[in-house]
Amino acid sequence: MVEQEYTECLLGNKYHEIDDFDIAKKEEDIGFYAGFVGCSFMVGRALTSVIWGLVADRYGRKPVILIGTASVVVFNTLFGLSLNFWMAVITRFGLGSFNGLVGPIKAYAVETLRDEYQGLALSAVSTAWGIGLIIGPAIGGFLAQPAMQYPSLFSQDTIFGK
């Protein structure tokens, strides 16, 4: 039981999601599969970061920032609605592939602000990113398994029950 709580703490909501997919034959394998879901984001990001930098240089920072922001909404929603393990992996990979935000945002801040405000702008970007990494999973955990947590609002027969 303590090992399960420790694993849940490390993996967050992915633990319950992988458990719901019934892909792991044993409870000990849930962390193995959650690792694939977690790393697929970084694989997508590693494969496309340079491309997004080139696109931002050629077509401008704003379009890349808008595409990246829209992709966060779309792919995180699809990830939350994943019905099986492979859909979860593919949506996380897609999120990473279209998430070329950090470089263009920092470049945009450096290009548009005077020298004395650039340090503040770059630290604001990092601070906002860190706050998002805290608030996002908290909201996701609060809204996870809505049919079980809020049965009066969500039916087990809908996608929220799955």
UniProtKB/TrEMBL annotation:
SUPFAM superfamilies on file: MFS general substrate transporter
Subcellular location: Membrane
Pfam families (alphabetical): MFS_1
Listed transmembrane segments: 30-52, 64-89, 120-144
Boundaries of every Major facilitator superfamily (MFS) profile domain copy: 1-162
Keywords tagged on the record: Membrane, Transmembrane, Transmembrane helix, Transport
UniProt key word Transmembrane helix: yes
Name the record gives this protein: Protein ZINC INDUCED FACILITATOR-LIKE 1-like
Membrane topology category: Multi-pass membrane protein
Classification via InterPro entries: MFS (IPR011701), MFS_dom (IPR020846), MFS_trans_sf (IPR036259), Tet-R_TetA/multi-R_MdtG-like (IPR001958)
